[in-house]
């Protein structure tokens, strides 16, 4: 009887009775979006990207061409190359001093914005107070106020404080206008850090400040890099505040220095292009090194929380 049952079962599953391997599992089905993406010819993807990249790089190539091409040349190829325009703007047009002033303003704005935004963002993320909602609304509404509308009040304030023709006035103005967005981003990033991590540090005997520095601060690196780099680039490129608050030539920054190269009757295109290259190099270097952190920081601080 046992043999009969075995023959009956083997007849139902002949593959198993012969010792064959089980049939391989079917491959997971791909979504319609994945199949549609794979079916698109690659040239339909690379062609628009190539056109966009071409239109993006042409202005930079044109600026570089005028910067290294000899005066009077009409060649579309930067050869032979010359450094006369860079030497002229760096030595004769005081761009070495403008570069130094811009670096001071950019680094000081970066430090001030990051520190104040870190304190304000932590307060919004960890504490509850009555005007918290109104304060957040005020931060958001402040983004709609153009900086040009605040020039006259800021000028009067700095004049009373005797800070006109001082780089500190530009640093304060840049920091004030960078803080709302920076506080919102840092607040959203701190909300993603579990409070339980700080509570565990408190149990071990750490104060709130020590627990923040030891536990929370290392996890905020992408957000801090994003906020700091954005503050640096904005203050480096900003023209209006430096133009209004700095009248002495030895206190001017690179954007104002570029404006001095544009004369009433003529423009030295070679010198202007060389100055533009000098102004663009630090920004390109910053974004080249922090690109990954910048995207992570902005997405984490703006989307979550």
From TrEMBL:
UniProt entry tagged with the keyword Cell membrane: yes
Lineage: Bacteria, Bacillati, Actinomycetota, Actinomycetes, Kitasatosporales
Superkingdom per UniProt: Bacteria
Membrane-spanning parts: 45-68, 103-125, 137-155, 167-190, 211-236, 269-290
Naturally occurring in which organism (per UniProt): Streptomyces argenteolus
Membrane topology: Multi-pass membrane protein
All copies of domain ABC transmembrane type-1, residue ranges: 99-290
Family, per entry: Belongs to the binding-protein-dependent transport system permease family.
Protein name: Carbohydrate ABC transporter permease
Keyword Ribosomal protein in record: no
């Amino acid at each position: 009887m046992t043999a009969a049952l075995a023959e009956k079962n083997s007849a139902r599953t002949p593959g198993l009775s012969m010792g064959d391997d089980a049939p391989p599992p079917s491959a997971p089905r791909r979504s319609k979006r994945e199949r549609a993406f794979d079916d698109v010819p690659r040239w339909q993807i690379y062609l628009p990207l190539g056109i966009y990249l071409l239109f993006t790089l042409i202005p930079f190539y044109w600026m570089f061409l005028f910067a290294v091409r000899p005066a009077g040349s009409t060649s579309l190829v930067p050869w032979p190359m010359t450094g006369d325009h860079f030497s002229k703007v760096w030595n004769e047009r005081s761009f070495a001093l403008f570069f130094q002033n811009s670096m001071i303003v950019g680094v000081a704005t970066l430090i001030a914005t990051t520190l104040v935004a870190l304190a304000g963002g932590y307060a919004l993320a960890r504490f509850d107070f009555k005007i918290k909602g109104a304060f957040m609304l005020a931060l958001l509404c402040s983004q709609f106020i153009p900086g040009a509308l605040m020039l006259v009040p800021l000028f009067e304030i700095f004049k009373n404080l005797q800070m006109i023709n001082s780089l500190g006035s530009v640093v304060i103005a840049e920091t004030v206008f960078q803080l709302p967005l920076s506080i919102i981003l840092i607040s959203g990033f701190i909300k993603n850090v579990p409070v339980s991590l700080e509570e565990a540090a408190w149990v071990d005997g750490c104060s709130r400040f020590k627990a923040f520095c030891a536990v929370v601060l290392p996890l905020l690196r992408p957000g801090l890099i994003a906020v700091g780099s954005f503050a640096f680039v904005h203050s480096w490129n900003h023209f209006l505040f430096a133009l209004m608050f700095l009248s002495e030539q030895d206190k001017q920054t690179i954007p104002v220095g570029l404006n001095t190269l544009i004369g009433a009757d003529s423009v030295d295109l070679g010198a202007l292009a060389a100055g533009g290259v000098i102004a663009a190099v630090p920004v390109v270097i910053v974004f080249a090194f922090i690109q990954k952190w910048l995207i992570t920081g902005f997405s984490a601080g703006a989307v979550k929380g």
